[in-house]
Amino acid sequence: MAVAADVWHDQAAGTWLLQTHSTGYAFGLADAGAALRHLHWGPGLRAEVPAALLAVAGGEPPRWDRSRSGARELPDEYVPWGGLRFDEPSLKAEYADGTRSTEWRYVAQRLARQAATVTLELDFADTAYGLTTTLAYRVYDGFDVIERWAVLRNGGGHPVAIRQAHSANWWLPDRARWRLRYLHGGWGAETRLAEATLGPGKLVLESRRGTTSHQFNPWFTLDPGGQATEDNGEVWSGALAWSGSWKLVYELTSAGHLHACGGLNDFDWMVRLLPGDKIVLPSFPALYTDGGFGAASREWHAWARAHVIGRGDRTGVAGPRWRASAALRSPSPEASSGGRPEDGSTPGAGQPGPGPRLRPVLYNSWEATSFAVTQDGQERLAERAARIGVERFVVDDGWFRGRDNDHAGLGDWTVDDTKFPYGLGPLVKRVNGLGMSFGLWVEPEMVNPDSDLYRAHPDWVYHFAHRTRTEHRNQLVLNLARPDVAEWVFGQIDRLLTENNIEFIKWDMNRPFSEPGWPAEAGRNPERIWVDHVRSLYSILDGLRAAHPGVEFESCSGGGGRADLGILGRAEQIWTSDNTDAWDRILIQEGFTQVFPPQVMMAWVTDSPNWWTERRASLRFRFHVAMAGALGIGGDLSRWTEREMAEAAELIATYKLIRPVIQHGRLYRLASVTTDPYGACQYLTDDGTQVVILAWWGPSSSGGGRPALRLAALDPGARYTDADSGQEYWGAELLHEGLPLPGAIRGDFVSALVRLVRRAS
Ligand code: DGJ
């Protein structure tokens, strides 16, 4: 039974208590409204407790004694820089007369209950200038996620320069030691779990690349003393919903208090708010649980399914919404007018609605054909894909004019008529005739210098005057902060979607930013591009989704370089990594599912030996690894033997049976290849009746043994039947003795898939 979220306000004391499903979060006004002090984040509290906590904390108790640091290290919910403040601030503003600190007073609150959420907004007005800062909090019925963001409004008569503006500042309770876990990686090695013990000082993780990045992902867990396990212990976890450059700071202050704060990366960024302007900072949700890392992940997954995937903007303010317009549908790059932006409102973030649909089994031709796509070749692959039960056929890179390799063509989004003499129409028709939906790859934020688009508009890319335009993968980044460029990009994809029965777009982005300049705007705050690019991307995607509601999107950035809760508002799935080696994928997937639900984790079965690692693995093993998420096939089906085709058909049929459990169930990580002799995941439906177990063994080693697989979260008193063998077990037996593994598990890279059904008592 979902517990309703609520916000309790004690007006006399000046405190607020956010009540989530099973946790509490409290803060209160101090210094006559000049500060908002953090009071509690952890287990649920009685409504009267925050007032008592404030009486202590508001009066600068020993806990926040300034004697050790000489600084004013009070736990402010959001820290405007100024005074004796030396820890990481939340806000640094510069006013027109040169004043560079902020002092403010609380002025008002707004509380809004919508169907499944309660949103609290608190306004703080600068005491001398027209800048108002709104701190926003949202809680969700049935969840422990607390979402925070901030809005800055310039209501004065002069510009205000914002040089640093975080989304949230999360204070942790005082504990002796803290462990930080985070995700790092690189191309082909995304979302690897790493950890660090935090000592005094700051640990800063960030992306300065213009996108979320392969290198670090804006998600974390913090657990005291490094004591939490997969199943137990206190864990605080946060994940920034932003797809551009970001910065998260974990600071153990000199007085020994820990805060985790961040949002937009302030590096090279500044926004000048003109009178009347505002900036809405990205959402930064976080949660507390005492159920260990597994419970934290399950909370993220369930919340993302209910409130994030495909729900658009989280903070209620979208950029311009582009409207489909016939004038935009010209294939010529010169056509850049006609679409009219209109103010967009959020298409439902935080509101209840049907959960995301199950992901279809997809085929993608990239590893099979690379750029050598032709109508005949794709049709042959489509026919074989349909034979094994694929439901969606996706043509990847190489279908458009001039695109025979990665040196040319990006930007010229018209079909290559040497490869598709009659356009995409006949292939789409054939794919649909085979019972599959059709999907297409695009990379709309990019241009090759060798393209008609670049020849016509060399000023449309980010660049600095008198500086090299650094190419990466022979491409440059289009300046989406320019409204005409954004409108053109929208128009190109809108045209493709209007002219063809395309039901899925894989939206790629294969390079980071460099030379992030906009010379024509010199002196008019061109540094704003870091944020405006992402806002523009979001509004293009929101606009396309509104104009083509049946179309689903995949976020790709050279693999998993754009995986975050911001893009998930506009994408049904994420391409996890270009590394499709099944053994490597187990680790990448373990990191990915710390925060993202299995259903958005796109995983392909590709050929053996793997093109990247040259590792050989059986088809069954490759399937069993890919079945842990949204299953896709990416191998060259024209080379698969009849035996492999038959085995693939059988495995895809099995996946369709277990898909609701994998994609909408609860994930329990039973064992990790990093610490155990095998990796294993269990998926359990919400009603507890269906269980799926996937287990994977790596290179065999003698003496390691095959310890039993102990299952999780079953009813000890219930009976469970193995759906394939008919064998019956007591829940207690599976929980304590473990699941006897089917058959002999011998050799390298072997796997098991077990389906259990709880017997009705
Ligand atoms: C990078 C993606 O991650 C690949 O899957 C593929 O789409 C290529 N780009 C195409 O250029």
Concise structural overview:
The protein is α+β, with helices and mostly antiparallel strands. It is built from twelve helices and 38 strands.
Question: How does this model look, in words?
Answer:
The chain is α+β, with helices and mostly antiparallel strands. Helices cover 18% and strands 29% of the residues. It has twelve helices and 38 strands. The strands form eight sheets. The protein has an eight-stranded parallel barrel with strand order 23-24-25-28-29-30-31-32, surrounded by five helices. Strands 5, 10, 13, 16, 17 and 18 form a six-stranded antiparallel sheet that branches. Strand 11 and strand 12 (192-198) form a beta hairpin. Helix 4 (375-387) packs parallel to helix 5 (425-433) and helix 9 (582-592) packs parallel to helix 10. Mean pLDDT is 92; it is low at 325-348. Bound molecules: (2R,3S,4R,5S)-2-(hydroxymethyl)piperidine-3,4,5-triol. (2R,3S,4R,5S)-2-(hydroxymethyl)piperidine-3,4,5-triol is lined by residues 366, 396-397, 441, 508, 510, 556, 558-559, 575, 578.
List the helices and strands and how they pair.
Blueprint: E1 6-10, E2 15-19, E3 23-30, E4 35-43, H1 49-57, E5 91-95, E6 104-114, E7 117-126, E8 131-140, E9 146-154, E10 160-171, E11 178-184, E12 192-198, E13 201-207, E14 216-224, E15 235-239, E16 246-252, E17 258-264, E18 271-273, E19 278-280, E20 286-289, H2 292-307, E21 320-321, E22 342-343, E23 362-364, H3 366-369, H4 375-387, E24 392-395, H5 425-433, E25 437-442, E26 446-447, H6 452-456, E27 476-477, H7 483-499, E28 504-507, H8 529-547, E29 552-555, E30 573-575, H9 582-592, E31 601-605, H10 619-626, E32 630-633, H11 642-664, E33 666-671, E34 678-684, E35 690-697, E36 719-722, E37 728-730, H12 731-736, E38 750-758
Parallel strand pairs: 23-24, 23-32, 24-25, 25-28, 28-29, 29-30, 30-31, 31-32
Antiparallel strand pairs: 1-2, 2-3, 3-4, 5-10, 6-7, 7-8, 8-9, 9-19, 10-17, 10-18, 11-12, 11-14, 13-16, 14-15, 15-20, 16-17, 21-22, 26-27, 33-34, 34-35, 35-38, 36-37, 36-38
Helix pairs in contact: 4-5, 7-8, 9-10
Bound molecules: (2R,3S,4R,5S)-2-(hydroxymethyl)piperidine-3,4,5-triol.
